[in-house]
């Protein structure tokens, strides 16, 4: 584990294995250990690098508010440090960043695996308030720390979210979960990311009009456990962005595929890495 400087931010990075590089990005509020079962399968044949967004996991507090532009700069800096081309695996909201990186810096990438990616058909973000509200989100985190409510609310919230998004418990000790989700910084950052979600979706939608998706291998994994037909249809559209794109539907699977279906993610990586 280490703290890396990436585009003006400090991010917690966990690296293991040797071979072709993989860069793993979590979704909203995610932490590095969400990927542990997937990393176990991938590190035998790959150099696997997982990072926490600023303010999340064990990363220090962010210098800049969450935004698509900031997140792309971070992912690009890490990809460049690892040694391109890299294969990016991105979960949920992290897929916004991965797709934007592919459109802006295709030279850094070998391919993409989008793990039950977030999607918005017609995103709209007016007025844009996320940056203005970011200090309030930080203050909330500070207040939760000062009153010790963070130590209670954070881990409890994590358990509640996991109950609906996964069929398994956390893969790390309860103490590690408390150390991460009991931090007011993490809870404030989660609120800030939620506030920025629609703006990121709108910024990605605008980028799609300006920059075509490159001819890169792309696999979109769809969790169908609690999803309706529109979710799968949206993922089919994402897969169709690339002439080498395909979608894989996983019946009965829940959103946290990196915990529940690491085998499907490993298969997708093998397909993307295939010459």
TrEMBL record:
<dbReference type="InterPro" id="IPR000073">
    <property type="entry name" value="AB_hydrolase_1"/>
</dbReference>
<dbReference type="Pfam" id="PF12697">
    <property type="entry name" value="Abhydrolase_6"/>
</dbReference>
<keyword id="KW-0378">Hydrolase</keyword>
<dbReference type="InterPro" id="IPR029058">
    <property type="entry name" value="AB_hydrolase_fold"/>
</dbReference>
<dbReference type="InterPro" id="IPR050266">
    <property type="entry name" value="AB_hydrolase_sf"/>
</dbReference>
<feature type="domain" description="AB hydrolase-1">
    <location>
        <begin position="22"/>
        <end position="268"/>
    </location>
</feature>
<dbReference type="GO" id="GO:0016787">
    <property type="term" value="F:hydrolase activity"/>
</dbReference>
<protein>
    <submittedName>
        <fullName>Alpha/beta fold hydrolase</fullName>
    </submittedName>
</protein>
């Amino acid at each position: 584990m280490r703290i890396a400087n990436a585009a003006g931010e400090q991010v917690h990075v966990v690296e293991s294995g040797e071979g072709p590089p993989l860069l793993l990005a979590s979704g909203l509020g995610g932490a590095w250990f969400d990927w542990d079962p997937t990393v176990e399968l991938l590190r035998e044949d790959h150099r696997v690098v997982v990072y926490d967004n600023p303010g999340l996991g064990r990363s220090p507090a962010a210098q800049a508010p969450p935004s698509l532009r900031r997140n792309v700069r971070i992912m690009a800096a890490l990809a460049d440090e690892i040694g391109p081309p890299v294969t990016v695996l991105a979960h949920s909201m992290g897929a916004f960043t991965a797709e934007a990186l592919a459109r802006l810096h295709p030279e850094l990438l070998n391919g993409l695996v989008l793990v039950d990616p977030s999607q918005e058909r017609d995103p709209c973000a007016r007025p844009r308030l996320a940056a203005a509200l970011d200090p309030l989100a930080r203050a909330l985190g500070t207040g939760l720390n000062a009153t010790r409510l963070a130590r209670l609310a954070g881990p409890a919230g994590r358990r509640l979210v996991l109950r609906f998004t996964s069929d398994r418990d956390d893969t790390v000790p309860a103490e590690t979960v408390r150390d991460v989700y009991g931090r007011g910084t993490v809870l404030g950052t989660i609120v800030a990311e939620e506030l920025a979600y629609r703006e990121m979706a709108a910024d990605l939608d605008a980028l799609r009009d300006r920059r075509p998706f490159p001819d890169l291998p792309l696999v979109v994994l769809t969790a169908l456990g609690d999803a309706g037909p529109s979710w799968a249809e949206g993922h089919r559209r994402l897969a169709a962005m690339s002439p080498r794109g395909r979608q894989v539907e996983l019946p009965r699977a829940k959103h946290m595929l990196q915990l529940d279906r690491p085998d499907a993610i490993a298969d997708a990586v093998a397909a993307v890495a295939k010459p």
